[in-house]
Amino acid sequence: NQREMSRREIEMTAQFAIQKFAKDILSAVDNLELALESVPPELRTEPTTPIDSASVISKLVTLYKGVYLTESELLNTLKRHGIEKIEPKLGEKFDPKIHEALYQANVSGQDVGTIFDIRKIGYSLNGRVLRPPQ
After folding, report:
1. CB atoms within 10 A of CB 23
2. Strands 83-86 and 128-131: what pairing?
3. Across the chain, what does the average pLDDT equal?
4. 35-68 pLDDT, tens digit each
5. Helices 19-37/53-80 angle, 10° precision
6. DSSP letters along 62-96, please?
7. 3-state SS of the chain: helix, strand, coil percent to 5?
8. How far apart are CA 25 and CA 98, in angstroms?
9. What percent of the chain has pLDDT over 90?
């Protein structure tokens, strides 16, 4: 009986291990939903008639702010759970332990083995590379 209870407890722990993370990420999902809702239905597809450009610009600014807030909330949530950005700088020395090379090229004014282009930001989990920057 004790073994069965322990087995169920271990199973439940594994099943709900990310519950705190999931709750934290929901606020970012809510912000993303609000950002998407900020675009009126008539602007979600190609317009068939001319529309007021000032109105469209205002709605795009609102959309940008919503997506920006969502990104900020998501990054804060990830940081609370030990996930942080790895942001290499252009001209920084390439480190194969941290970075992932996509290609090499001779770039005038750059030393060999330096970063001259960044395609994706990397992330680490509690100090360990989760996804290397590319």
Report:
1. 10
2. unpaired
3. 83
4. 777 777 777 777 667 777 777 788 788 888 888 8
5. 170
6. HHHHHHHHHHHHHHHHHHHTTEEEE-PPTTPBP-T
7. 50, 10, 40
8. 26
9. 4
